[in-house]
């Protein structure tokens, strides 16, 4: 234990010692205080600056969404470039194959073309060769005997399409790149519709194609027998093999799926809002031209008396409706009118539903029309001579299926237009909402400023 001050002298000595220690501490603190004060002040300022620039949760989320969007666009651009490069190489192969094979068979001179099919054709009689020469002049037979022209044309078209896609992918941020990508998008959309149409035809028309070919073989067997190896039974057995149709339909489906990936990629690279706005404008313009064509056809039908009394009227009403609907879409897009776009969306959806349901009904219930033909066959036979009832019913069923499938396909295209109209509606809504919120913030700021001024 320390000494305890008990006398007045001891108290004075303790006070003097404590004052001396306080003085020493204050002098040492005064010597170190400038640097320490500066460091402390700097630390406080840096801490406040970090707190001031620390992003909020909303800002971090927006930054992450922007980075994720950039990554998705880069991925879509890579997919689009790869698909167009592969299709370009495939187009080169098609052009080479079509150009080299096209010279093997020359159909400008039917006799030489038939001689190129086989040496035994030279031993046939003159009458048979003349009949076969006339048969070859038919356009479909030309394409069957010499398909290389079709292969060459397809290769050139695919090469041009792939080139446009590659050029658009190389500069998607520029205006020219976006226009090229939209041209690619529109063409691929048409190709997808054609491929789906071809797949439906291949899968559905297997029995119809077999029946048609059997009938053609029966009618022209006298001219075909010298040209074909084997008997009639062998030829019919070959016709009944529908594996080529199945493979062709599968090829159309796979190609349509691959091209759909290209559609998504090009739309993602351009931006979905930009793509839908362009689709909306393009569909409206093409709809105006289509409506004008329908009105012109109705006038032609009325002048020539084609289709009775109902065909010109229905055609004219359809043309006028399409023109009005397209003009409503163009007005809503240009004027940024939300009401006009909502009306356009509703009308397009109703029209798409009506067309699709009509197409499905025609495809699913062909027996209704077949029974109608059977009940009115006497009246029909009076107008169509030389055709039996069975053949006529088959022809009507085929035409109805074509009409139904075309209606369903048209309904799908209308759904694309409806999606573009919906995207345009959402864009107009968000822009108007942002303008309204900005005005509210400005008014709220002015109100707070006036209130503070009145208080002062």
Strand content: under 5%
For the sheet with most strands, the description reads: none
Category by helix and strand content: mainly alpha
Number of helices: 16
Q: Helical amount among residues, as a percent range?
A: over 70%
- Radius of gyration from CA coordinates: 40 Å
Assembly level: single chain
Poorly predicted parts? 29-33, 109-129, 136-145
Care to count the β-strands? 0
Q: N- to C-terminal separation?
A: 66 Å
User: H/E element string?
Assistant: HHHHHHHHHHHHHHHH
Mean pLDDT: 72
Overall spatial form: elongated
Secondary structure elements and their pairing?
Layout: H1 8-53, H2 57-102, H3 110-117, H4 126-136, H5 139-145, H6 148-170, H7 175-204, H8 206-224, H9 232-240, H10 243-270, H11 272-304, H12 310-335, H13 338-364, H14 366-375, H15 377-383, H16 389-455
Helix pairs in contact: 2-6, 2-10, 6-7, 7-10, 8-9, 10-11, 11-12, 11-16, 12-13, 13-16, 14-16
Structure, described:
One of its GO terms (cellular component) is membrane. This is Transmembrane protein. Keywords: Membrane, Transmembrane, Transmembrane helix. The protein is mainly alpha-helical and 456 residues long. It is 87% helix and 0% strand. Helix 6 runs antiparallel to helix 7 and helix 10 crosses helix 11. It is elongated. It starts with 7 loop residues before the first helix and ends with a helix.
